[in-house]
Amino acid sequence: MKKLAVPFLVASIFFLGGSMGLAKYKIKDLHIKPAQEFGSHQDFQNLVIGAYPYVTEAETLELFDTDKLHQRQILPVLVAVENNNEFAIRIHEQDVVLVTRDGTNLPSLPYQVVLLHIVNKPLTTYATQPDLLRKMVGKEMTMDFEHKAFGEKLIAPGSSDFGIMFFWLPKQDNLLGARLYLPEITNISDGEQLMFFEFELGRPQQ
Fold it and tell me: What is the pTM of this model?
């Protein structure tokens, strides 16, 4: 699966103009195929969760108009969720872990932290404030990452959603054997936790 081009969900954001004195950042649309059509996915408990890691620089440029994402060794993973239950569910990216083949757990990175790494700015709570982040990074790039980031999803019955999660790129030469681990998926109607999801994510780097 080289490109995700099957129409399903479309993230459309319109370009609003570039930052002063900087090359204009171009916001790119995402065309997402159904979760069950991802090469890496799990179908369980009336949920389908699929994921695709964007390993190469060329692939990351399909998502975001910056080569710094790949240069900073940050791995974007597209995660799509289809909820076929009769109740809404909650998934938060902060609960999700990338487990490498040697057992190392890599927690997801908030998009604000990713942006600060891209522009090589100090990581402080103050720096992640929205207004300051937009001034340092640029309005368009900040808006694009915020919109596409998985964040927290509340997915209604019979609905689908998607977003990008970010992880440090594993030190190994490839992602073969790596797994995506989602330990907390909540049934919003009663607050109960569903069984965790865990499935292989890895594919060789090119």
Answer: 0.85
